[in-house]
Amino acid sequence: MTAMPWLQRGVERFMSEDRVALESFQRDHFGADSPLLDDTHFSWLFEEPPTPDPEGMQLWVCKRNGGIVGQQAGIPFALKVGQRVRRASWAIDLMVAPEWRLRGVGPGLSETHAAASEVSVSLSMTDAAYKSYKRAGWLDLGNVPTYLRVIDPPRCLRVSPYDGGLARLMARLGKPAMSAASLVGHAAARTFGARLVEVERFDERMDGLWEAAAPQHLCAARRDHAYLQWRFDKIPNAARHRRFLVMRGETVVAYVVLRVDRWRDESVGVVCDYLARPGWLMPAFALLVERARRDRLAALVCRTLNAQAARPLSMMGFLCLKNGLRQPTRMMARPAADRPELTPLIGDPKNWFVTAADSDMGFKDLGG
């Protein structure tokens, strides 16, 4: 028996009869407030993705001595790589009981998950998972930056998790300068004939937007109507999300999903997701900044990996925090063993379009 099949002993897909034992494992290792323990969230996450795994829900458990000692979950999705769409999966919630760590359980679970898709991707992993993936040969893509747009500098100073340089920068910029940048960007968006329209749900127009926007991104999870409905309209806490379309006439040129979180008793706007036709990202964010100013938010926060967004966001006053608000958001990827030709594309972070809507990054509030 080779090393990996030996490590994968006891690893199998989750079955309904495992639910009670798995809940006990998750409660012990993720905490009693884990969303995985909520039946509605569990069903939405594992049973309803728009691109399901034909072999079953992507949740694996490792059993030793009759009990569950580890788990690995995945969120299947359609990944555009170059000109083709690949079967991919976000690797989430890898957990091994402390007494079984460094005994092959983690690698066995990870390898089983990776074998189910053409590409596996992990975002915002724990230190233990990062080390495990690194040893297994995953491609390290660095960190997903967080962009911070100060709306009200005095309020941002009070809630900022940083001292020193960032605080001094916000104080030096001052409210008049940031308001001027907002108004200039908003005026530019109006010049292009764009307006921000809030909607209750996403509709079929998102398919056309995806087709128009996709060619500018070499590696991106498909964001069509079916995906957006599942991710934002059907999620158990759907009411938390505000959906905005950027319209030019009757054409949807972009969308932005915003959530308002409480961060140290201040209201902060979290950009959960966005997508824009070529040339429309800056007008879309300019309109969003103006809306945030009118709604009296202290700041906007946007976690995104998008080489094409860095300059427009910088011009609108967004500060790039490469290590995030509190800790880095690491990203790693791995092609299947029979897809080595994908390595050059998926191994370059400049090719990726990622937002907080990808994987499970956006499930927790800023204060969570």
Defining key terms:
globular, Aminopeptidase, alpha+beta, 12 helices, 368 residues, 16 strands, 2 domains, 16-stranded mixed β-sheet
Q: Whole-number average pLDDT?
A: 89
Query: What is the CATH domain class of the largest domain?
Result: Alpha Beta
CATH topology of the largest domain: Aminopeptidase
H and E order: HEHHEEEHEHEEHHEHEHEEEHEHEEHE
Under the CATH scheme, the architecture of the largest domain is 3-Layer(aba) Sandwich
- By CATH, the superfamily of the largest domain comes out as Gcn5-related N-acetyltransferase (GNAT)
In angstroms, what is the radius of gyration?
Answer: 21 Å
Please provide the count of β strands.
16
| Biggest sheet statistics | 16 strands, mixed
What does this structure look like?
It contains twelve helices and 16 strands. It has a 16-stranded mixed beta sheet that branches. Helix 10 links the parallel strand 12 (266-276) and strand 13. Helix 6 crosses helix 7 (165-191) and helix 7 (165-191) crosses helix 10 (281-294). The protein folds into two domains: 3-144 and 329-354, Aminopeptidase (3-Layer(aba) Sandwich); 146-326, Gcn5-related N-acetyltransferase (GNAT) (Aminopeptidase, 3-Layer(aba) Sandwich). The N and C termini lie far apart (44 Å). 42% of the residues are buried. Helices cover 33% and strands 31% of the residues. It is of the alpha+beta class.
